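Note to self: keep these together.
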Amino acid sequence: MTAAARATSPAMRRALFRFTASAVAAVIVLGLLTLLVADQIARQRALEDARHQVSNMADRLAAPLITRGVRAGHSGASAALDTVMANRMRDGSLQRVKVWDQDGRVIWADTDELVGRVFEMDDEVIALFGTHDTHADVSDLERAENVTERAQEELLEVYAGAVAGDGRPVVVEAYLPTRQMHNDARAMVNTFVPLVVGTLLMFLLVVLPLAYRLARRVDAAQAERTALTQHALRAADLERRRIAHDLHDGVIQDLSGVGYLLPTLRKEIHAEGDLGRATALLDRATSVVHSDVASLRALMVDIYPPNLADGGLRDALSDLVTVEAATAGLSGEVVLDPALDVPPDTARLVYRVAREAVRNVVKHARATTVRLEVHAARQGGRDTVRVLVRDDGVGPGNAFDRPADGHMGIRLAADTVADFGGALDVRAHPDGGTVVDAWFPREIVPT
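Structure:
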């Protein structure tokens, strides 16, 4: 799969779409959270300003004008307080004002219908008597005392403790409009939301290209892993077919022949039988069994060569060439670098490449000799291992292009070497025959 194909693969497009959709959703959610936070900050600021305003009004204006006459409801006693509060309410800074005593009675109010009436007070209001503390909230205007304010949609309700002009404690209740609170909230939204959203959008502009490149790399890694898996499956299938072929054409055929010999041998083993023929048949059966045992042992070693590390690679390669060459009637030679020292994973790769190359000679070269060389080398500034297999046969032909199964092993070996950062080349030797030349890093990472 090409890089362009990987860049537009459906899986990658779906992943990028999900990432972009999630990022946009995150921007929307953070924008909404910013709105909520701005509203809460504006609300707290408005309540704080209202507490400060009402506390000052209670201590400096309202409470000093509460006299005994005002408490007693004498005519004209509250004229000064009426004038002061009317002025404050006229400029819009206050909507409603009440003054309470400790019995829950309204001493004074901006509307006469509430004066003298007694209402149940909340605990936080009762606690303000005798102090200069305040309590503020956005009122729901549902209490009985709010009968004159219910036409309003929303008000800031503030209670402030104070000492009246007659020396007794009172609580001044004032209602303020929420207009300034909403103005502050809008100002914060107009300031912070564009900043937050703009910052997030800039972040997305930076992150999306990075996500795109990361998605391409992940997609490429997945494609490579898929190719490696397919390669491993092909190699395993080839190995199974080769083992089945060797067993069918070798051991099974031989043992079947022995099975036919044994009844004949039994007929000859008696006093009147041909003992000479029986001996010859027994010797033949023994030879076949010994040969098959050797073949099975060679097959076991071939499947998993024992102890390739710790010097075992040299013996495994010698056994490989000896057995394969003897089977095909070739003259075999093994040349190993005395200084060659490779990790176990690299040793297994050396053995696999050598095995496929030597088998390729046995099956296709029609050669009389085969020579295996393995030695350390330096290539591209790093330590490598080089494997050379040469024969004097008919030449390389098109070993990498033919669809026949006979060359599948050498092609898979070439793919494996390439996977580890090396290369395998099959070429004609100037003096005739074929050279399989492979190199790969001394340190490989097993798949």
